[in-house]
Amino acid sequence: MPRPIDRPTTLPLDGPLDPEVGDVAKIFAAPQDPADWPAWRGALTRWRAEAHERLAYDGKQYDRPETAWTASCHSVALVWLWDERLFDRAGQRFDVAGFLDRTRDHGGFDGVVLWHAYPVIGIDDRNQFDFYRDVPGLRDVVAEFRSRGIRVFLDYNPWDTGTRRAAHDDATELALLATELGTDGMFLDTMKEADSRLVTALLTNEPPQVLEGESRLPNARVEDHQLSWAQWFADSAAPGVQRARWFERRHMTHATRRWNRDHSAELQSAFMNGTGMLVWDAVFGVWVGWHERDKATLRRMLRVQRALTPLLTSGEWTPLADTASDAVEAGVYASRFAGPELTLWTLVNRGETDFAGPALTAVNAHAQWFDLTDGRRLGLGADRITVPARGVAAVLAVRGTEPDWLAGLLAAAAEDRGATSTTFPARTARRVHPSPATGRPTVATVHVDGGPRELTMTYRRRETGTYQGAPYVEEWKPLPPRLHDPRSEVLTLTLADVEVAAHEVTAAEFAAFVAATGYRPSCENRWVAPEGDGPATMVSLDDARAYAAWAGARLPTEFEWQVAAGQPGFRRATPLVWNWTESEHTDGVTRFVMLKGGSDHRGEGSDWYVDGGPREPSFSLKFLLPGLGVDRSPSIGFRLAWEGR
User: Fold this and answer.
1) Count of beta carbons in the 10 Å neighbourhood of residue 229
2) CATH 3.20.20 residue ranges in the chain?
3) Which residue in 216, 215, 211, 187 sits closest to 201, CA to CA?
4) Cβ count near 418 (within 10 Å)
C-alpha cells in the first residue's frame, strides 16, 4: 500500500497550505465532486503564486537553450548497460540500432539511462566511476544514441562510499566523466536533490548536464533540477495535479512504479499533466515487462506529446475541464491546454469498459476538430469520442491553418489501432548447459554422489531476485524487513555423479595454461595473466571455461559446488574468493551467474553493495554478468569438475 508520503495531498480550497507540506507534495488531490473543481483550480493558482513569490522563483535555468530539450524528454528508458537487447554477448559489442528496434513497441525513447554499477558494485574495490570507465567504446555508444536524437543520462550512486576513492570528489569526478563520455544528464539514485556543489559542477560543465532527482523534488530545487522521477505517486480518483509540474510548467517528471504489471495509473497521471514516463522493464536483473495495452497507451500518448510540447509547457492549462457529466460518471476526465490557434484536451478513462460518446462539453464552431489518438477528422465538433478502458484519448481543435505535422500524426494514429491484452509477457531464465568434461581428474577431488536431493539455498533478498520471477509484484515501495532480508528456499533436484576439484585453480596453474596454449581472450580488457600461488583471479567466466576445456574438465554447477563443499577434503584458497559456477542463465534480456563461497572482500557502508565476506556453502549470489571483461575481478576465481565414471 502507498506510504503516507506517497499519497496525494489535499489542497485547502479557501485557505493556505503549510509550505512544509505543499512544497514537497507529490500530487495535489482533485475533489471528487465536479462542483468543487472551479474552486480547486483557483486554489491551485493561488498556491503557485504564493510559492513563486516566497521562493523568489524566476525559472532562468529553463531558459537556457543548451538544456531546453528537457521539456520534450517525454519517454526515458532505464537500461542496465549489459541488457542483451543492447549488448550482443556473442559478438561482445553494443548494438544501439538493435536495441531501438527491439523496443520500438514502446513508441521510441527521448532519453536513455545507462545504468552501470548496481547491483554488481561491491564485488571488489572498483568504484562507480570505474564501472563506466572500464567499458571499452562507451563514448561511441553514447554518441550513437545522441546521433539518433536520444539524450543519454549517467547514474550517480551517492551511497558508494566504501570502494576505492577516485582522484577527485564526486562532483568533480562526475563532471569529468560526463565530459569524457559526452552525455547529457545525471540520474540521482536514491537522491531527491543534489547538493550545491554537485549542482554547480554539472550545470557549468561542458557539455552542461541536467539533473533528475529520484522522487519528490522540493520546490526550492525545481530551479536547478529540470527533471525528476514521479516514482510511486499515488493519485486521487479524479486525476490530480503533479505539484512540481504545476509549479514550473517546463519541469519534466517521469512516472514509474517499478514492480507494477499494470501501468495505466501512471500513464493516465502523466497524460493529464503533460508529463512523461520512465520505461523500466528489467529492474536490476528482474523482468517486469509491459503488457500490450500499456505499450499501446504509451504510443498514443507520445505521438500527441511530441507534436504539442509547446502547448503542454506554455499553453493555458485547465485541469479537469470541459468534461460531460455522463463521461465523469463513467470515470472519464479531461485536461485542457489552450493556445491562440490550438486547443488540446487530454482524456483518461479510469473505468474498466470503453467509453464512447460526447465526452466534452466544449464548443467552438470556428475550429476544426480532430481525434488525435484514433486518427479521425471530427469536423466542427467532438460529438463522439472513444476513450478505451484504462486508457487515454486526445482531441485537438484547430482555428486557422492546420499544422504541417497534423496529417502525419493522424495517419500514424489510424494505423496503430492499439491493443487490449493485459497478459503479462513472462520470460523464463533458462540455464546455459555446459559442454561435458572430456577427460579425467588430474588433481585431488571431492566425490558428489548422484541422485535426487533436497538442498537449502540461502540468499539475501535484493532487487535482483533469484532464479525466476520478481521478488515483488504489484507492490508499492519495498522496505526492510522485506528488503535485504535473509531468505532460504528448499530446492528439489537430481544430481549426477561428479568429481569436484578439492581446491581452486591457482594463478600458477593458469599461467601454465597460458604458456602452453598461448591463450589470449577474445576481449583483453582488464586481462592480467595470473601469477603466484594464490587462486587464479581476474579471469572472466569465458576465461575459466577455456582453462577447464584445456584440462578436460568443466566448472561445477552451483549445486555440485554446494554439496562438494560439505564433504571432507574440500578446501578454500587464501585469499578467499567467490567461485564461478556453471550456473549461467539468460531470459534474453538479463544474463546472470550464481557465485558460491564468498570472499575476503566486503563492501562496507551500504546495503546496496554485493554480498561479501565468507559465506556458507548454501549461500548463492545472483551476479548479473557484465561483458567486455568487466566481469574480471580480483574477488572471483574458479575450480574444476568432471563427470563421474
Assistant:
1) 22
2) 4-290
3) 211
4) 16
* pLDDT < 70: residue spans in the chain: 645
- Angle CA(281)–CA(73)–CA(156) in degrees, nearest 5? 65
**Alpha helices (H) along 498-557:** 507-517, 541-550
Separation in Å, CA 215 to CA 24, 81, 462: 10, 22, 20
| pLDDT of the residue at 477 | 87
Domain 316-415 has CATH 2.60.40.1180: yes
The answer to whether residues 82 and 572 touch, using CB atoms and an 8 Å cutoff, is no
pLDDT of residue 383: 84
Q: Which three cell numbers stand for residue 165?
A: 576513492
Alpha helices in 31-169 (DSSP H): 37-55, 96-102, 130-133, 138-147
CATH number for the region 4-290 comes to: 3.20.20
- Domain ranges in the chain with CATH number 2.60.40.1180: 316-415
How long a stretch of residues is the chain? 645
Q: What is the DSSP string of 312-323?
A: HHHSEEESS-SB
Please state the three-class secondary structure of 1-37 as a single string.
CCCHHHCCECCCCCCCCCHHHHCCCCEECCCCCHHHH
Residues 317-345 have pLDDT tens digits of 999 999 999 999 999 999 999 999 999 99
For residue 219, the model assigns a pLDDT of 98
Rg, C-alpha atoms of the chain: 28
**φ and ψ at residue 470, rounded to 5 degrees:** -95, 145
Distances (CA, A) of 446 to 462, 488, 517, 568: 32, 25, 28, 8
